[in-house]
User: Fold these one by one.
Assistant:
Number 1:
Amino acid sequence: MLASFLQIVGQNTRYCVIRNTFGRLQFATSENFHKILKALNSLAPDLMVRPGSTMPAKIRESTRFYPYFKDCIGAIDGTHIPASVKGRDVSSYRDRHGNISQNVLAACNFDLEFMYVLSGWEGSAHDSKVLSDALARKNGLKVLQALHNFLRKECRSDEFPVKLTDESSSSSSVLPNYEDNDHEPIVQTQEQEREDANIWRTNIGSDM
């Protein structure tokens, strides 16, 4: 539901295309679009802060970025940084490309200055695990509880294709010692992936 809404407003995608992409009827697509729009309108007065007069010069003075990114304050992404690991922990730090690395989450502003960095996760850790850890930390990233609860209520039946990968997580962000048989299965089924995602979102909501 949310994914189709974002594709419509972000890429000006027509309902007929959304219908084929997500396997929904055109009427249901329109109905879901207005549900999300109504929810965002109800959240806006209390949870969305209007941007101030200060705008990064690189955006204000560039026709490439302004006005499309006038409300952005930065960007967040994950990256893999090479790591030196020895012993039985090597397999945990092997990413999907076969390299030994850490999965690092970082946020920076438009002056390329880092505002937030979370390091220490193994290269095999899934991005959702790293993001979950960032959200759970005392001074970590924040999400809107009202929006989270709305998604749990309205989007419960949405099922999106899950790509099987060899990424899995078997620890927290602290670099722990593993026992030989403590690793989780590397490949999960779609049902397991959806169940893990539901537990992850529930934990985020309960911690807020």
Number 2:
Amino acid sequence: MAHRVSVKEEDAEDEVMLLECNDESEALTVLGDATPVPPGVVLDKLSAMLSTGRARLRFASGRSWGVNGVVFNTWTSFRYDPDGSCRLVDSADWRTGTREDWAASELQQLADLRKKAHCLPCTASAQPSVLRPRQCRRMVFQFHRECFKKKRAAAKPKAGGEMTIAAFLAVVKERLRGAGEMPTYVKLLTSMKNNAGKGEITKLLAGHPDLVSKIPAPKAGAKPQEKPRATPATLPAATPTAAAAAAPTAPAAAREKKAPQQPPSISKTDAGTARAREAVDVESAVLAPLRSLAPFAGLVRLAIRRGRPTQRLRLLRYLQSPSRAGAGAERREVFLLRRDPSAEFGQVVEAMRARLPELGGDSFAQRLAHICAVADYFTTFELDEQETHDPAEAQQANILEARAWNEGRLQLAMEAGVQPLFVDDPGAPLEQSGYAKRAKALGYRINFESMH
């Protein structure tokens, strides 16, 4: 029988989680079995930790990396393994499949979150399990203590009594950060980079006389600060001698003018907008990455691209409910809505929900299951069903991509037997659209509804 260390003197949370018993299998009974989830669930939780978490620390070990932090007073741990699978542990154990199971958009989201995680302090130590909060806290404390020791060592003056420039800047940064004067520190860095004199640095450090006395002397080889060059308007008239000296350079200037101009560079934003305006193939770009998922998982992922994990879970439960599966199976209809784009979308949603056979239950899940609206792809679903919409310019730039997602969403909804279905895509030619072709191919009756 394994020997257990007493937990009488440990924290209450350690005692509950059996953290000092060195028996992680027993502690895992608190979490239950690992829950396989789509990558989006884990990525949303990681995004929340990177945005709102406390005591965050990044761990790097070869091709693996991870982040620990406190989210809503609960220690949360994320880890990425070399095979592309991810694991996030908070109050439960969430796990994804390997890299082959991920969609391209999810891989891009993971790459963006990894860049964001690179801004966190990093250690090469082994990542502690969040099943041991005390060990997690100790790791964060030790990391910052070592950083503080290094700063103190760098700030110590030389044997001759004069600080190095690096030590001086470290002391100044710590002081100004504590005083909320980081803009002054930025100005100081710029001035020292330009080899400013001691007088200018003294003005920037006004109010900190002890720091003024520590200003290091400039290096012997440092060049004095250059004076700003005069503009062409202030230059004196050229003398004949000066004009003659400048004459040999005229052919070179002419050659520079004749050189072919390089095409303007395209920024990442422009490139993304250009790609978004190209036609998107629904089968290869939207549906193909989702075919390997569970029957309803792909539909949930397309219906809520920018929402919370709990909202995805609500939609999944609604789609799997026996009452929905057996309701109105004989009526397989798709309503393609014609409406003015300026009409209030909320009123349109209420009008469409009134056509559903059953108004009870989760109205949020009903709307996302039965109403395939392009507007959902420009919407971020917040807490308490609040919605944030993208500006009109962003919607116009990405309308073709949103329509492809919405068409794929309709396809998966029909394959799952959801009915009736409503399609809201103002401005699209509905009669010859992919919506109508896909509904006809799957045996759904097509109705064109005018809503003005």
Number 3:
Amino acid sequence: MKSINKFKTIKDVSINLKLPQHVLRFWESKFKQLKPLKLSGNRRYYRDSDVELIIYIKSLLYDDCISIKGVQKIFKNQTINQILRSKDPILKKKNVLSENNNKSTQKDNSNKVNAEYKKILKEFVSDLKKIKNSF
């Protein structure tokens, strides 16, 4: 049998990752890939790969604001090893999408500003013409 010392209890994981134990148990019900070893008395023992997956899930949910359903779609039909191998490309893809989104938002904002300046300038020219014609 494997040494228990290689595994982490739910309490250890909870403290180290600053996540309540009930959240970890809830995530087990939502993500089929997260299956800690359960031994005597239904005690949970997390492998290193489980902890990596929890860190990844936490990042997607809390940092990237992806919903649980969204994360489930990302993980759909994948094993824990496939998810952990593919997590870097997914993060890179999200970063690229985020950068593109920021650029398009900046472009939209600059177009709005340009339109406002044009409107103000037209009104100014119109006022100048009125003043000129009044002389």
Number 4:
Amino acid sequence: MRLLRRSLSVRTRLTLWYGGVLLAIVLVISAFSYFMLRRTLISGADVELLMVGQVIRDAGFGEARRSEAEVRDILGPRSLDVFYRVTGPGGKPEAESGALRGRHLPLSAQARERGRTGDPTFETVRLSRGERIRLLTIPLTQEPARFVQVGATFSDIDRALDGYLETLGVVVPLGLGLALVGGAWLARSALRPVETMSRTARRISAQDLTQRLPLRGTSDELDHLAETLNAMFARLDAAFTHIRRFAVDAAHELRTPLTVLKGGIEVALRADRDPREYRDVLRSSLEEVEQLIALAENLLLLSRLRMSTSLPRHAVELETVLMEAVDTGVRLADGRGVIVRLGAVEPVIVHGDHSTLRRALVNLVDNAIKYTRAGGKVELSLE
């Protein structure tokens, strides 16, 4: 089931959901209308039975028996659809219609009890042969207890209900099919902007991040999604542009010291030199290597700053950082006639990143050495 759900497109799932919900609604409405129709038909049959029962009661059965022909003449056409029986004391039949055809109409205790107060009783009973009938019992006289029973089969009601079910069996599938077609069309129309956005997004690559998703100007959810994706593409474009510029700048910065380093080594290898010349080449190469190290550290620091929103913070002894910066400064000042020394230092603890603080102090010392004349001094102190 999960694999099938994954293989279905969003449009198909929306259509199936729409069809399923619509089918559930139609089934609920159909069931409700079926029971309402059944109730209406039974109520109509009860009204008809009550009219027939009142006619028979008022026809004079209270004083004299009438023949079935006389009763038919009084009832008119409606007598063909119902059957009746008049019972005397002890439930003995006094008169009945030929339409009974051997049916035995039960006289329930409920009908007897309600008959004492003169109230009619409607019942749905099942005869011995399995036939269901709607039965009305009306008290005719109190003493002796005599009743008029009028009944009708459920055949007409069942035929009407069966016809209604047959109609539903045709109308519901047809309507559901039309609804599914309409739902598929609506889903396709609703998802067409998504397909357009998908095609545009596939054309966007790292080489061309200038394209943007089209906006329909409806300010709906799809427009909001397109605006969000466009903002993301803009940020990606800015990030890729910065990376390209960063790569170009880094290559340019690395080329100069590497070229100088290569040139010095090539000159030293062309012919035999005295030790002093080799030392000069090595000293120059060391300066270029230190410059490369400083550049690499700066690039690493910049990368760390961009990878995280904040640097890790912990307790750092500034005295230790200052001493490391002085040691590095002594090496940088070697051969330049500049003295780098450590002044007064007091123990100070701060919360920060050790490497970042060291890099900042080394940069300060390096700049101080560059702009200090030979014979000068650079002193670092912590108070």
